[in-house]
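pasting for the record
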Amino acid sequence: MLCSACWEIKEVMTPFSVIFGSIFFYLTVWLVSPVEVKYSPSVEAILLLLIGQLSLIIGWMSCRIFVPPSARPVKVELTDSYLRSLRAAFKILLLLAVLSVFFKFVDKVLVRDVLSYGSAAERRYSLESTSIFGILAGPFYALCLSLPAFVTVLNLKGLSKLFVIILFFVPAVEILFIGSRGIVLVTLFILFFYTRFVFKVKMLSVALLSAVGITLFYVSGMILLNRLEAHGISPLYSAFHSNYAFTLVPSSFGEKLAEDGGIFSVFYFVVINFAQYYLHGALEFSFLFDNFEQYDHKFGIYTFSVIAKFFGVSVGPDFLESASPRSGIYTTILGPLWVDFGFFAFLFLALWGRAMTVCYYKFCSGNIEYLPLYAYMSAVVFFAPVVNLIQSALGVYILVSFFTTIFLVKIFKRRFRPIPNE
């Protein structure tokens, strides 16, 4: 078979780097943040969180020990049949993504008229129910996040490339518009993978992209301020009385910064709010663990509520609020898994670490279709000390979309498989 293209793979972030980078970044945020602990975590809860991280490492190690990886290639030969498979799959994925965005637009703009609401809080309340168009948009809406993985290898240029990039940011912009930000974390992390490992962007451009990320979080802070103003709540009061403040409050230094006001008042508020947002999950997990005796395990319904709804299981707000001691907060990746599976949560994390490592080796072997799934699984691991991204931020929908990406490419690989010469 002739090689029609060579695709260079270098500097791919390994699963080991993701796991320890996650821990390092989380501890760094703890050290520099102007916050202090209000709810002291129990020793048992801290130990369980450490075992959770160890489970991810065990999953990574099991793949290396029992399935020894081949050397990572510098350049991967892309055969003509494989490129045809990618092009065919990409066209279908693009069509599904565009249709999903269209259905989402009809659902939110035409059916529920979210543009008529003046504040993000009002827009969020208007979205408590959904329409048939919202249901149709759901399964493949997250395909927007997978499409840029194919830009370089399929040599997309001009308007085609621009259109794919615009689609990539649609979910994040939509979520910011309604006053949330969970999917923004996922989008920025996947964007980092794409800019470094697909587009081969230089470090200066990565720095510029980091500035874009900081800007997005600044905008999210402004949106949150608007939400508070809509309810007549001051930023400083929110910092001491919000859901996050149950376990973590501004330190005396952070309080002084927030009180000083001036042109940097929004920046100080964003810093404090981000620190509470990013760090409170571990403390909330301790509160969950310390008070879980009166609750029952949900056997997957809590973490995978979207799938449960698909099979007709009633998973309304009352169920979600009754599943754990507190609602509206994060409890790290382990919290929802603990509610569902108890100690079997560690087996789930080990399997996740192993599956992520398999995706890594698949991608490094030249299977481009595995990059979106590997990037997302890495995002789940990187933010594991903060939140369970599988449960929130379109988690299940992203998994469905990225597995669909792999499935379609495999189908077309069989269709375009070269027939050997007799």
